[in-house]
Amino acid sequence: METPAIVAESGSLLMVRHGARFAVIERRNGRLYGLGKDRRDGFPATADGILAAAGTGWSDEATARARFDDAVARGEALAQRLW
């Protein structure tokens, strides 16, 4: 089985790949978190943690890239408002 890998990173956001599937997760304080409205449990920063954080949020590369870019833009807009 292929090991999941980080393919893009911006701030706390990570776009990860596992085989032909892609997902967007967040890394904070050494823990990995899925993006979504449900309760967000933290997972260890390991290959298994990447898989657990991504959960059912896997998609094709174009969809994940669009989600990653949107999350990065929203994070930058929030940071600008806070400063």
In short:
The chain has two helices and five strands. The chain has 83 residues and is α+β, with helices and mostly antiparallel strands. It has one domain.
The amount of beta strand, in percent, is: 25-35%
Query: What is the β-strand count?
Result: 5
Which whole number gives the mean pLDDT? 90
Arrangement of strands in the largest sheet: 1-2-3-4-5
Number of helices: 2
Polypeptide structure, described:
By secondary structure, the protein is α+β, with helices and mostly antiparallel strands. It has one domain (5-82). 36% of the residues lie in helices and 31% in strands. The protein has 2 helices and 5 strands, in the order βββββαα. The protein has helices at residues 47-54, 61-82; strands at 5-10, 13-18, 21-28, 31-34, 43-44. Strand 4 (31-34) and strand 5 form a beta hairpin.
